[in-house]
Every structure is written in structure tokens, then in C-alpha cells.
């Protein structure tokens, strides 16, 4: 998704782009390919609007106007009473700076891919799919990429948006720091009896966060983190037992639930590349950083990468610079390095802080949450930061073409 967004951004700035994708697009657009939905920061959605896909995606996007975050126990008769501390974020608190924009949008990944793919075709961007890179090298002022189709591509710059297991990153010798959490996320969609009223909920439980993320038509995307063993067991139990466990965490405040479609499971971990570029290769999105979905920032980091890299490359090309040089690519790395590293570290800290049931630590967490909730300026900054609207914003995140 980040790679397709970059292709559209570069095309809008007059650069010639070829997009290589390993998976056949028909498979990627199927409902069984990816059951996830992504929380899209409001500034990142501005980027899609500027690139011509926002209006299409808005039909499939659900506003998040409020977010409740709680620190809870696992359900059960012996569970102690929850502490009365929670975080509450509301878009109306920052409306003087954002207008009618929500805190973010929830969009199913398949709808994002479909809208981006259709715009790629409409823009006449060359799409080579299915195809994989079998070799790559640099030759003076150009990089060359050999595909398993027998074709060789030649360009001043190659961008890896391949995901966490980036082949090009490994071939370039860029070191990659990574570790796995003892958690997997079970993801499913539920239909609810009552409307969610555009409110998202995240409950921090000892085994991991449990998120209820609003979708259109009174549906919600459930992201249910458990230990690997428990998550695998949830994938194997019968429908009634799965429902019983689900309702124990979800509660009955939105009425009856119906699980719609398939369940999916994703192992969770962190990955961070030590460099964002090397030679004529730049890293983008999960190739450069992959984080826990605890705050829904993973794709947003990639979309912020897109906005910064597109602006750097388009402006360099207009000045007649070689867009594949260290001089140009370091501008991109400097723009994005701190945000990517700091967000990765903070998300890792959240996982370790909240995914345990230590009673003393839980009490300290609760008090900290309660105090945080009483400081409006701090809460507003967090909302704007999560909305990708703080710092030196690239033009695309302001809703402007480069």
C-alpha cells in the first residue's frame, strides 16, 4: 500500500515509475487475502485525497471521532474490579486546527489496495505483476534490477517497499534489528446489533491489547492479541467457543455480535533497519520499520515516508540532481529517521509496559493514565501527533501536491 502510494506521488510530480509486485493483484484484492483494516491518520488521508484516491476511499472509510483506552483484567469471576482510569480522545478537542477531520479513518486493507490499484491503472503507471527480483546491481549512475520474467529494469533509484522481509535490503547489506513478541494477533470482523457511533476502543490486557475498531455498517475490526499458543487455539476452536471467548473480552454494550467472514492470525514483532538508504536503494515502510499494532501507527509511518521521499525526489529532479545519490537520499533519511526510530521505541515500550499483569505496575499505570487524561494540552498534542500532523510536514500531508 505504501509502495503504490509512492508510485502515484512520484507520477504526480512528473517522474517515470515502474511498480514491481510479487503477488498477482487479483489475489491481493480477494477478501481471503488480508482480513485486516488499517487506522489511517487524518494527515495521511489528506495525502490520498491530493493523489486522487481519497474520494473513492472515503466511501469505504469509517471516521474515528473518539478513542477510549482502558487498562483491564482478563475476564472471569475471580477478576478484581477494574480501576476507574482511562484515556479519552475526541476529535472535537482539536477541531480548531483540523476542521471537520476525525482523529483518523478505519479502512479495510482490501479496499485500500483496490482504490490504489485502480488509480495506478488510470494514471498509466507501468505495473509488472506477478514478478520478483532475482538480482540487482549498480552501474555508475544507474541501478539495474533483473526480474524472474527475464526483463531488466534500469533507473537511477530503486525503492524497496517489500515489507519486513525485504530481499533488496538484505542484498544491500543493510543491518536489520528485529525481535518477536510472544504474541500473535487474531483478526476478524464482527457485525454488531447497535451502532459504534464512530468510537474506537482499546483494552490493554495482560496477554496483549484487545482493540474494537469501527467500520462502516455497524461493523468492527477486532484485533485480539494473545500468546502464540492461545492465538492458535482460538483459530482452531469451533464457532460457538470462539464467540464465547470473544464476548468475554468485547462485552455486551453494543448488543449481539456476529462474526463475519474468516479469522486471520498474524505473529507480532518489531523490525528496524539501521539505514534508510544505501547506494541507489531507498527503504520505505515496513522494509525500514515494522512495529506492533498497539496504536495503529504501522501503515501511517510508511505513508509519512512516502510524503517525505516523494517531496525530496521530485524537488531534486526539478533541480536536475541525480535522485539516486547519497546527497539526495540523506535528506529523506534525515527527515524520517527520528520519527521512525522514536515511534518504534515508544511502541515497544508500550507493549512491554501494558502486556503484563503485575499488580503494582498496573496500579502505577492506572494512576499515570488518570493524570494524563487531566492534561488537555498533552492529550491534544498526542492526538495531533498520532494524526501525523506534527513537526515539519511534507506537502502531501498538508493535502498539497509537490
Automatic annotation (TrEMBL):
SUPFAM superfamilies, A to Z: FAD/NAD(P)-binding domain
GO BP, one annotated term: ubiquinone biosynthetic process
Cellular component annotations (GO), alphabetically ordered: ubiquinone biosynthesis complex
UniProt domain FAD-binding: residue ranges: 2-318
Cofactor(s) needed: FAD
Protein name: 2-octaprenyl-6-methoxyphenol hydroxylase
GO molecular function, one term: oxidoreductase activity, acting on paired donors, with incorporation or reduction of molecular oxygen
InterPro entries: FAD-bd (IPR002938), FAD/NAD-bd_sf (IPR036188), Ubi_Hdrlase_CS (IPR018168), UbiH/COQ6 (IPR010971), UbiH/COQ6_monooxygenase (IPR051205)
Keyword Chaperone: no
NCBIfam families (UniProt xref): Ubi-OHases
Pathway: Cofactor biosynthesis; ubiquinone biosynthesis
Superkingdom of this protein's organism: Bacteria
Cross-referenced Pfam families: FAD_binding_3
Keywords: FAD, Flavoprotein, Monooxygenase, Oxidoreductase
Family note: Belongs to the UbiH/COQ6 family.
